[in-house]
From TrEMBL:
<feature type="domain" description="RRM">
    <location>
        <begin position="13"/>
        <end position="94"/>
    </location>
</feature>
<dbReference type="InterPro" id="IPR000504">
    <property type="entry name" value="RRM_dom"/>
</dbReference>
<feature type="compositionally biased region" description="Basic and acidic residues">
    <location>
        <begin position="99"/>
        <end position="109"/>
    </location>
</feature>
<protein>
    <submittedName>
        <fullName>RNA recognition motif domain</fullName>
    </submittedName>
</protein>
<dbReference type="Pfam" id="PF00076">
    <property type="entry name" value="RRM_1"/>
</dbReference>
<feature type="region of interest" description="Disordered">
    <location>
        <begin position="136"/>
        <end position="155"/>
    </location>
</feature>
<dbReference type="InterPro" id="IPR039157">
    <property type="entry name" value="RBM18_RRM"/>
</dbReference>
<feature type="compositionally biased region" description="Basic and acidic residues">
    <location>
        <begin position="140"/>
        <end position="149"/>
    </location>
</feature>
<dbReference type="GO" id="GO:0003723">
    <property type="term" value="F:RNA binding"/>
</dbReference>
<feature type="region of interest" description="Disordered">
    <location>
        <begin position="99"/>
        <end position="131"/>
    </location>
</feature>
<feature type="compositionally biased region" description="Polar residues">
    <location>
        <begin position="116"/>
        <end position="126"/>
    </location>
</feature>
<keyword id="KW-0694">RNA-binding</keyword>
Length: 155
C-alpha cells in the first residue's frame, strides 16, 4: 500500500497507546513501558477545552530510541490489562495506515449508505430532509389508519 510518504523513521519507533483508563497518568505510563527500552519522548494527550478540560483523552504516544524497542513494547503490551482495560498498542505508522484503510472502506460503501455516513446518520442522527420525510410518512400512515378506523380520531 502506498502511504504517500507519510511514514518516516521517527514513526517507526513511536507507539500509539490507546484505551487508557483515566486513572493512568504520565508517570505510570512511562513505568509500564520503560522495561522495553529507552523512552526518548512521551506525549500524553489532555482535553484542552470543553467540560472535560484538563482530563486525559485516553491515549498517548511513546517514542523509543530504536525501532526494535518499540516493536518489543508493542508485542508485550498490546492487549495487556491496565486498570481493568486492555491496552491498544500500535506503531504510530500503523495507526496512520489503519486510518487510510478506513478512508478507502468508506468509499466502497453504496451511495445511499455513504451519504448517511457523511451526514452522521450512523450515530442515530438524521439530516433535516430525512426528518421532514419521516414526519410526512408518519402523518400519512396516521391519516390512512384514521380513514380505515374512524374510532382512532384525534382527541
Amino acid at each position: 500500500m502506498d502511504t504517500g510518504g507519510f511514514v518516516d523513521e521517527k514513526s517507526e519507533n513511536r507507539l500509539y497507546v490507546g484505551n487508557l483508563d483515566l486513572r493512568i497518568n504520565e508517570a505510570a505510563l512511562i513505568k509500564m513501558f520503560s522495561p522495553y527500552g529507552k523512552i526518548i519522548s512521551e506525549d500524553f494527550l489532555w482535553h484542552t477545552r470543553g467540560p472535560k478540560k484538563g482530563e486525559p483523552r485516553g491515549y498517548a504516544f511513546i517514542q523509543y530510541s530504536h525501532k526494535e524497542e518499540a516493536e518489543l513494547a508493542k508485542e508485550k503490551m498490546h492487549g495487556r490489562l491496565a486498570c481493568g482495560r486492555p491496552l491498544v498498542v500500535r506503531l504510530a505508522s500503523e495507526k496512520h495506515l489503519e486510518d487510510i484503510s478506513h478512508d478507502h472502506s468508506k468509499r466502497s460503501l453504496p451511495e445511499a449508505n455513504r451519504t448517511r455516513f457523511v451526514n452522521g446518520s450512523s450515530s442515530g442522527q438524521m439530516s433535516r430532509g430525512e426528518k421532514v420525510a419521516a414526519i410526512k410518512n408518519k402523518l400519512k400512515s396516521l391519516d390512512e389508519d384514521e380513514k380505515r378506523d374512524p374510532k382512532k380520531q384525534k382527541r
